[in-house]
Structure formats: structure tokens, C-alpha cells
Write a structure and sequence with these properties.
alpha/beta, 8-stranded mixed β-sheet, Four Helix Bundle (Hemerythrin (Met), subunit A), binds guanosine-5'-diphosphate, 20 helices
Amino acid sequence: MAFEGLTERLKATFKKISGKGRINQSDLDNAMREIRTALLEADVSLKVTRQITRRVSDEALGAHVLDSITPDQQIIKIVDDELIKVMGDEASELNKSKHIPTIVLMVGLQGAGKTTAVGKLARRLVKENNARPLLIAADVYRPAAIDQLKTLGETLKVPVYDEGTDVDPVEIVKNGLDLARKNNNDYVFIDTAGRLTIDEQLMDELKKIKELSQPTEILLVVDAMTGQTAVDVANDFNDALGITGVVLTKLDGDTRGGAALSIRYDTGVPIKFVGTGEKLSDLDVFYPDRMASRILGMGDILSLVDKAQEQYNEQQAQELARKIQENNFDLDDFIEQMDQVQQMGPMDELVKMIPGLSDMPGAANIQFGDKDFAHMRAIVSSMTQEERMNADVLTPKRRRRIAAGSGRDVMEVNRLIKQYKQTSTLMNKMQKGNMGAMDQMFAG
Ligand code: GDP
């Protein structure tokens, strides 16, 4: 996952100054140097790195970090603020035009994830706004792109307009827009051709399509894995076309993530969405504050809450909150939560989003697949009501009985009980607020 290296280095830096009580100027200078190196190694541009470290130094002086008895937390807060500022403060959603359809022109180099992003955005609009988008296949140089878009359209039950590969893309866009107006589609996504590198012919074609379609949004799709190149590409496209937003893809990959920090600062164009996987649901709104806390290793609790909200209804959430508050989170609830969580996505990804959890001993144990889940359910089903409500009564003898009853072995039963206890401890921690987890993480 992106930022792992940066997060680790920043954490190590903060750890050095935590537990020290007051720090002196040389501690602060060292910390600044380490923050600078950590940013540069994560592929953050020199300009942005300088900006961040200069502002952090200035702020640290102003905030009297040297006089503070919690210098590490003050510095973390300052770095957090600066990261958020550099990434653009607020999240920005897709702009909507006053008259339908809202036209979104999707541009980018080949392989950046443009076509996939069209599918992801269309899915999101259909799911959240009941939108009726039309997708226009204007990438005539790569026949596979048209097929890919058509397949996406079938999956999403969204119409795709194409005229094959022998027609001028400008013409296709014109006819596609006529159709959208006729059919009252509220959104139109134009999937355009990419090249391996930027060339004039590509830009000329895009300019013509822009001229004709007068889009509300020109979204540039860039691959986070390409690092500084992503920033250069963003600058080039912006100079030529005037882009309105960026979709940063492949943030799930083995990327150092620096592009996320540099793009907004370098181009002034906001990152609107991030791609976090190949599936159509792997698209998140880009929240600078959440990204900053992720970079600082404080997890991404808000994104997790968002994901959870997609799965839970209000009543379930309130019920769960009440149980945690009253310390009544029992094994039945645990299985129910696991069931919900199963539907939210891969467990190891979720674990990374929870502040402090990835650092907790045993966090690695909270990973399992579908089959494990069926086994867990079988184990809990073999417990008595009393046992489910109070895990403390689960003596070795009872555990052996449960193992026999569920056809699993005792070790598995033990593991489940341990996972349940860890989860319930964690829930209590979260209930008490983030600070607890943070303190624990930076404790010297
Ligand atoms: P295009 O040439 O820009 O239209 O790119 P595609 O949409 O065809 O994507 C190129 C490849 O990147 C495909 O294999 C996609 O599945 C993959 N891809 C796109 N977005 C993401 C992402 O956010 N994460 C990961 N891991 N892969 C992605």
C-alpha cells in the first residue's frame, strides 16, 4: 500500500522525540532532517518537500515546541496540518452542470486506468444518485478499449455509445452527445484515447473534443506508481487542456505515494478521486485530511466509517455503539460484525485503516478468508447462549466440546476467542477516542 515507507520513517522520527519530555534545538533539527529525507524518499518533489519542512520549522518555532512537554504530538499536528494544506485542504467532488447532461471528459496516458475509472465513476453515480449515465467510447486506436468499456457497461447496466474504430473520435463524441440529449442521460463520460507518451496529435484531438463537448469536468487519470512522472504528466495536460481534476489510480500498489502530495501543489488542480484496486468498487473520494492521517500512520478511520456506512444501516450502527458502550459486545455480535466486515473488503486493508491497530500485537491474526469465516460461524453456533454472551466461562473443557461440536480443532476455537477478545478491546479503545491509540503508538 502507498506510503508504507514514508509512514514508517515518520513514525520512527516521532518516536525518537516522544517520551523525551522537552527537546532541544538539535533534536528538532534532526527531526526536520529526517522528515525531509522521508518525504524525498517517498517521491515527493523537492519543491513540495522544501515547502513542507520550511513551514513545519516555522510553525514549530511559533508553537514553542521546544518549551512543550509533548513536543512529538505538537510536531505531528503541525506536519499533519501542512500535509493537508499541500494536498488542498478540502475534498472536491465531481462538478455538476446546471443543465443535463454533465459532461465529463476523461483523459490520460495509456494504461493509467482511464477506462477503469470511467466504470468506477459511473458505478458510484448510479449507486449513490440513481444517475443515468452514458459512456462514449472515443478511444478508436485501441480496439480493446472499446470492448473493455462495453463490458463495463454491461456489468453496470449502463449504455455505451460506440462506432467502432474507423470513425473520427470527434464525430463519435458528437453523435454520442446527441444520443445522450435525446435519451435524457444526466451524465456523459467520454473515454478518450491515451498514448504511451504525450504527443501533439493526442493533444490536438483532445482539444477538438473539448471544444465540441464543452465538458463540465476534464478529469486526468494518472498512475500513482509512476511517481514524479505523474506530476509532469499532470502539468503537461493542464497546460494543454486546462484540467479540472485528477483521478490518482493504483494507490493500492507498491507505490511510494509521493505523487499524491505533489500534484495539487504543483498544478493547483485538485485530486478528486483515488483508485485503490482493480474492482469497480475500488474508488474513493480524495480527502486530504484522511490521506494525511494515513501518511502519518494514524490510520484512516473516517474512510473506514464511510465504508462501514455503505454496509450498515443507522439502526445497526446505533445498536452496535450501544453494545460497545455498555461493554455488551458478545460473540454473536462479533460474528455479525465479521459478516459485515467481510462484505467491506479485504481484512488486511481494513486493519491498516484503523489507528494503532496495525501496530497492535496480534493484528496480523485478524486476517482471514471466506472459508475461515464459515468455520468461525460453525464454532460460534456450537456454543451455548451463556457462552456466547460471556466468553469468560469458556474453560478448556468447554472449548474441547465446542471444537468437537463444530468439527474444528481446539486451536481454532482458541484463536476465535482470542480474536473476539482483541476486537472487543479495540472497540473499547476506539470508543474512548483516537487519542488513546495515538498515545500508545508514539509511546517511547
Ligand atoms: P487505460 O488505458 O488508461 O484506459 O487503462 P485501463 O483502465 O485499461 O487500466 C489499465 C490497468 O490498470 C488494468 O489492468 C486495470 O485493471 C488496472 N487498474 C486501473 N485502476 C487501478 C487501481 O486503482 N489499482 C490497481 N491495482 N489497478 C488498476
